[in-house]
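TICKET: design request
STATUS: open
ATTACHED STRUCTURE:
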């Protein structure tokens, strides 16, 4: 089990504080969506068991909700250094060495998110133009794309922030 890092608190600089508030509210929204998905699943399974009448299209709603929740959580997780941390090999190295690999990981992740932020709107436009709908409820597939793009833009900004933060930590030899 990984130990809780002492540096996983709120950012103290103005940009970090703004990003913290923004990503916190996005993550809270994602949590509310997860709660709604749990409620839909519970009602659907109970309805299926007791009344032989589940919620129509429940799996479609859960699928859309999952996408919304995942995109909502990513920026906060990245900002709080809790996205993906593999500290098994680096836990006994210097802070500068750890910060360098954080910088490298943040840089690579930022490049991947840049590609996703560029391509997701294009995919959303194609889905919109093709008029793709879900099978049961016939909800347009493109409805989730604007929120996903917004979350990706926020995540890209957070990736730039965390990359700069890690670079600064590498240069100073300590964590901020």
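STATUS: resolved
RESOLUTION: sequence designed for all positions
ATTACHED SEQUENCE:
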């Amino acid at each position: 089990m990984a130990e809780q890092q002492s540096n996983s608190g709120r950012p103290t600089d103005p940009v970090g504080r703004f990003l913290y508030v923004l990503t916190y509210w996005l993550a809270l929204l994602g949590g509310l969506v997860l709660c709604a998905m749990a409620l839909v699943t519970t009602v659907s399974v109970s309805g299926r068991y007791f009344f032989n009448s589940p919620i129509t299209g429940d799996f479609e709603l859960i699928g859309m909700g999952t996408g919304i929740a995942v995109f909502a959580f990513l920026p906060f997780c990245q900002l709080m250094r809790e996205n993906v941390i593999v500290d098994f090999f680096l836990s006994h190295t210097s802070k500068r060495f750890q910060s360098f690999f954080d910088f490298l990981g943040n840089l690579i992740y930022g490049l991947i998110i840049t590609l996703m932020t560029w391509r997701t709107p294009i995919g959303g436009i194609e889905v919109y133009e093709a008029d793709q709908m879900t099978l049961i409820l016939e909800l347009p597939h493109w409805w989730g794309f604007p929120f996903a793009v917004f979350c990706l833009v926020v995540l890209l900004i957070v990736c730039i922030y965390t990359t700069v933060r890690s670079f600064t930590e590498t240069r100073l030899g300590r964590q901020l």
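CLOSING REMARK: Residues 1-7 have pLDDT under 50 and may be disordered. The chain is about 70% helix and 0% strand.
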